[in-house]
Amino acid sequence: MCIRDRYQRRVHGENSMPKIRTLKTKRAPEGWEIIEPTLTELNNQMRDAENEPHEGKRKSETLWTIYRLHHQRSRYVYEMYYKKREISKDLYDYCLREGYGDANLIAKWKKSGYEKLCCLSCIQPRDHNYGTTCICRVPKGELEEGKVVQCVNCGCRGCASCD
User: Fold this and answer.
1) How far is Cα 71 from Cα 79, in angstroms, rounded to an integer?
2) How far is the C-alpha of 128 from the C-alpha of 121, rounded, in Å?
3) Residue 37 phi, psi dihedral angles, 5° rounding
């Protein structure tokens, strides 16, 4: 099983990668040319990360770059719609439908306390000891001084909103 397949099954299920555009695919809404170069570049980086050799890395470390790029791509779509207001609702929905952004992660970013959330696996209690959240969700002020914290799931070094 390749890295992309493990990532998709672990986080999103089956259809999480952007779809390939064919003649039968609906045309992108107006404004697509604004965000297309950035999303294409992020997709190329994602493809390179999927094909990167993983010898000498722990099993979870191989997914860290994929998690980071997935977060970056979803964050770009989120900021273009909610923060900068440079894309339309139709284009935003198109991006989510085609897999360019993670709708569940974006829904969490809109809630108070989750503005900097790195991935959904960090807040799922079933994935962590004692039924809590990930160590990267702990504010840096509450950790021992000088202690470097890094999430085992995604490699995040801290995504608490109060940092």
Assistant:
1) 12
2) 9
3) -60, -40
CB atoms within 10 A of CB 117: 21
Total length of the chain: 163
pLDDT for residue 18 = 66
- Residue 105's nearest CA partner among 97, 117, 122 is 117
The answer to whether the Cα torsion of 81, 8, 105, 114 is positive or negative is negative
Three-state SS at 3: helix
69 alpha-carbon distance from chain centroid:
6
Residue 93 pLDDT: 96
Degrees, nearest 5: CA angle 161-111-139: 15
106 CB neighbour count, 10 Å cutoff: 19
CA–CA distances in Å: residue 34 to residues 6, 63, 103: 32, 29, 20
pLDDT band at 99 (very low <50, low <70, confident <90, very high): very high
- What region, left, alpha or beta, does residue 17 occupy, with left being phi > 0 and alpha being psi -120 to 50 degrees? beta
What's the token pair of residue 152?
């085992």
Q: CA distances (Å), 89 to each of 85, 102, 137, in order? A: 9, 15, 31
Average pLDDT of the residues of the chain = 87
What is the C-alpha separation between 56 and 92, in angstroms, rounded?
A: 39
